[in-house]
Amino acid sequence: MNLTLHVWRQPARSDEGKFVTYAANEISADASFLEMLDVVNESLTAKGEEPIQFEHDCREGICGSCGMMINGIAHGPLGGTATCQLHMRHFKDGDEIWIEPWRARAFPVIKDLIVDRSGLDQIIQAGGFISVNTGSAVEANTILIPKAVQERAMDAAECIECGACVAQCPNGAAQLFTAAKVSHLGLLPQGQPERNDRVVRMVEVMESMFGSCTMFRECEAVCPKEISVDFIARMNRDFIAAKFRSWKTESSSS
Length: 254
Ligand code: SF4
Ligand code: FES
Description:
The structure is a single chain. By secondary structure, the chain is α+β, with helices and mostly antiparallel strands. The protein has eight helices and seven strands. The strands form two sheets. A five-stranded mixed sheet has the order 2-1-5-3-4. It has a two-stranded antiparallel ribbon with strand order 6-7. 36% of the residues are buried. The mean pLDDT is 96. Bound molecules: iron/sulfur cluster and FE2/S2 (inorganic) cluster.
């Protein structure tokens, strides 16, 4: 198939960006979206032009590095799919495709389609871990976890930190990402000792960098792992409960 691409080109964070139009010719319907960009980049390189810079690693929906806006939708039109898993058979011959970097104030452009997602790392650094010396792995059945709890925790743990939820949200909010990370630890027995401190620290760092959630639910619609906004309600409940407990402790000790 032959396509026309309008790609956001921006040499550096401090430079002005603009859309540049490229022809993507003889693209196989079985190619992935990233492979289509590889083909375009090969022709740009052959002509001595700067290839389009985009981030990628696993190319199988695991690492979360490949996000971009495709026709205004984070990770493209398919839903439940990372950009690397989107195939060209979902487009038609002759289509025009607009490709942009993630759109969020908290994700400044580094170059072309690559953005700085370190704001998400800062939320994890605030509490997305369990502070114990684990030593070697314990025997699998030492800590029994009901199947329903384990599956719910796994639903949250599927988050790949891609940032699509932030990019699609009109407020640039990171609630779905933070809720997934808070919940996958907060649901398991190993996460209970730090549960209150964790949710407060992570939410406070999130609020200092990202927008507020007003429940547009655009995050849920574009999440490649289809993480539910129910986790946001769960995080908010945990946050309020943790704040109430710390207020009660402070007022009883004063
Ligand atoms: S919640 Fe979904 S969209 Fe947001 S970072 Fe995690 S995987 Fe990506
Ligand atoms: S390249 Fe790893 S999720 Fe797409």
